[in-house]
Amino acid sequence: MFMRSFSCQRLLTVFFLGLFLTTVVAAPTHAAMVGTGQLLAAETPVADTTQIRVALRDALVARGVTGEEAAVRVAALDDEEVLQLAGALDEDPAGSGIVTVAAVIFLVLLWTDIMGYTDVFPFVNRSPNGSQGPIVTEN
User: Fold this and answer.
1) 102 lies in a domain?
2) Whether 45 contacts 79, CB under 8 Å
3) Residues 75 and 98 in one domain
4) How many domains does the chain have?
5) 100 and 84 in one domain?
6) 100 alpha carbon, distance to own chain's centre
7) 15 or 138, greater pLDDT
8) Contact 70, 57 (CB under 8 A)
9) Is the dihedral of CA 76, 79, 80, 86 positive or negative?
10) Could you tell me if residue 56 is inside a domain?
């Protein structure tokens, strides 16, 4: 029979491997031709970042950082870091990727528990003899 040739572990391995491969999200990439003007504009640093530093300090104070601490943090940044942080402050909330990391860790631990490598979760069914797979009794 076809189904007898596959063990439960092999079937679950294939299932979770397929699940993992279908849920991996690749970072989107964009390619385009870059003109000379765009390249020169990107290479020339912004001469005056004082206004950006003040706005960044105010944004940190609005998020609960004290005024002195915000001033010290902004003063410790160089111009490139100030520009990068000012552009991404509203887009990247703190702890935004923690749910994804926790889900991946859970799935990896669940997979290793189902495969019999670990014994982390009590809800994973096991045979009475401790091995993984269906219980086989002799008549």
Assistant:
1) yes
2) yes
3) no
4) 2
5) no
6) 5
7) 15
8) yes
9) positive
10) yes
